[in-house]
Amino acid sequence: MEKKVLVLNLDHTPVAIVTVQKALVLSFLGKVSSLVHYEYLSVRTVDKSFPYPAVVRLHDYKNIPYKGVLLNRNNLYRRDNHECVYCGSRKHLTIDHVLPRSKGGQTNWKNLVTACHRCNTQKGDKTPEQVGFVMRQPPFKPTLSYFLAEYAERNAEEWLPFLDLKTV
């Protein structure tokens, strides 16, 4: 598997993830500088060898408006580790409104959780407290760094010092 390269803005905020080819092209064009390399990896040509970049930083600040992490089923499941927040089951997952919509609950990161079909049905149109459920973790709005850190822990430990692991 080919490793990916984390691109940071001039202020060290994550901007993108690119292939090593794109990172090397940006480097040769003088648009980025390499901050960290993957150990024991290199890109070789016929007569040269280049260190394999892990993290690069742009030379000029790019104003990229932050839109946040998209609220969708896949990202919600990823945030909750593909487990029911009430019982920990990984089967028959659904999405549950902590405060039901009928009681004024909004559809947002802090009111949606992953729940198994059994717990969601048992909870019904009530709050977790009314049914006696305790959430294993409270719902929160994840940042881009949160999801990048998830990838980095499995594939690119070199990225971790550059990621803000706090949630918003």
What Rg, in angstroms, do the CA atoms define? 21 Å
Report the biggest beta sheet as strand number plus sense, adding barrel if it closes.
Answer: 4 strands, mixed
Kindly report the average pLDDT value: 87
Q: Topology as H/E string?
A: EEHEEHEEHHH
What does this structure look like?
With about 170 residues, this protein is an alpha+beta fold. The chain folds into two domains: about 5-65 and about 145-160, no CATH class; about 75-130, DNA Binding (I), subunit A (Orthogonal Bundle). It is about 25% helix and about 25% strand. The protein contains five helices and six strands, in the order E-E-H-E-E-H-E-E-H-H-H. The protein has helices spanning about 20-30, 75-80, 115-125, 130, 145-155; strands spanning about 5-10, 15-20, 30-45, 50-60, 95, 110-115. It has a four-stranded mixed beta sheet with strand order 2-1-4-3. A two-stranded antiparallel sheet has the order 5-6. It is elongated. The model has no long low-confidence stretch (mean pLDDT about 85).
Helix and strand arrangement:
Layout: E1 5-8, E2 14-18, H1 20-28, E3 32-44, E4 49-58, H2 73-79, E5 93-97, E6 112-116, H3 117-123, H4 128-131, H5 144-155
Parallel strand pairs: 1-4
Antiparallel strand pairs: 1-2, 3-4, 5-6
List keywords for this structure.
four-stranded mixed β-sheet, 168 residues, 5 helices, DNA Binding (I), subunit A, alpha+beta, elongated
